[in-house]
User: Which sequence fits this backbone?
């Protein structure tokens, strides 16, 4: 796929992207059950990396992250966030997991040119506040999809997410990410057969280069590879794949999901509904595939 113009992927490509996304979630779930009191963020990130490499991953959008406790709410994650600069606090550190602590596992592997970028949220034991945030994240998934289907400008969707956060009393902690990113594009890379590729500061050079190349082309054509609330994102959703990650914060607890959204010339849909957060909502009686469209349309009108 050329990054000189935004266009949809083939069904075969989407199936391959879906496979990698499922692999990424499988990794996060496998590591989550291994988390014990005393393990550090760095160790949890390393467990994800080892698992993914053992399952054939050959490149990264970014190598695995892990955040524990109040760091799930990105407390202190300031630095050069608005400039997209290097921020050491963002990287896995020496924080040790304790009973009742929330955690976020985030990985973005590439396999044979296909990339996923996922976020998985959980807790060691119980945390009722985290349960509340994770339940409420369903509304954000519905809102984003409904507005994308309606071809609302990306900036308007991001602003609607921020407004929903304000309504709930949450902080939109995705604004602590580089460029205050709610989502970014994911592109298909060439499969050169190599077993490993170069990373810099934990980010895969090929993926970041492709994102930057697409960004330059997009500027000329009036669209952005970064989806946020700025004027640069004030355009209709561009066809392709977007890794979307609304991140809520309340006091010292943060929660998020991240998954791929497919955008076509006239529609949008999640790449896969068989993902851990959707299964969780279904198990708690919050999600029903039969009435999801009605709920989403209602949210879009309210926005």
Assistant:
């Amino acid at each position: 796929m050329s990054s000189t113009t935004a266009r949809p992927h083939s069904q075969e490509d989407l199936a391959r992207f879906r496979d990698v996304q499922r692999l990424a979630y499988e990794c996060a779930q496998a590591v989550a059950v291994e988390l014990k009191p005393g393990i550090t963020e760095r160790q949890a990130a390393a467990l994800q990396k080892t698992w993914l490499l053992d399952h054939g991953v050959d490149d990264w959008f970014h190598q695995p992250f892990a955040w524990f406790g109040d760091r799930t709410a990105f407390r202190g994650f300031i630095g050069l966030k608005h400039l997209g600069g290097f921020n050491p606090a963002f990287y896995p550190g020496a924080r040790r997991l304790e009973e009742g602590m929330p955690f976020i596992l985030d990985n973005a592997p590439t396999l044979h040119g296909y990339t996923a970028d996922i976020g998985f949220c959980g807790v060691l034991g119980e945390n009722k506040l985290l349960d509340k945030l994770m339940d409420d994240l369903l509304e954000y998934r519905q809102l984003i999809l409904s507005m994308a289907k309606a071809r609302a400008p990306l900036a308007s969707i991001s602003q609607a997410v921020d407004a929903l956060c304000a309504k709930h009393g949450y902080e939109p902690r995705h604004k602590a990410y580089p460029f205050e990113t709610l989502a970014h594009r994911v592109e298909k890379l060439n499969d050169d057969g190599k077993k490993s590729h170069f990373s810099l500061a934990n980010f895969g050079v090929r993926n970041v280069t492709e994102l930057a190349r697409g960004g330059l082309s997009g500027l000329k054509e009036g669209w952005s590879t970064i989806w946020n609330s700025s004027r640069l994102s004030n355009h209709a959703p561009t066809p392709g794949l977007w890794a979307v990650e609304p991140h809520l914060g309340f006091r010292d607890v943060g929660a998020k999901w991240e998954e791929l959204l497919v955008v076509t010339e006239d529609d949008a849909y999640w790449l896969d509904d068989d993902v851990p957060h959707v299964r969780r909502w279904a198990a708690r009686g919050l999600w029903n595939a039969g009435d999801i469209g009605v709920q989403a349309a209602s949210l879009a009108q309210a926005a």
User: Anything to note?
Assistant: Residues 11-302 form a domain with the Creatine Amidinohydrolase fold (CATH 3.90.230.10).
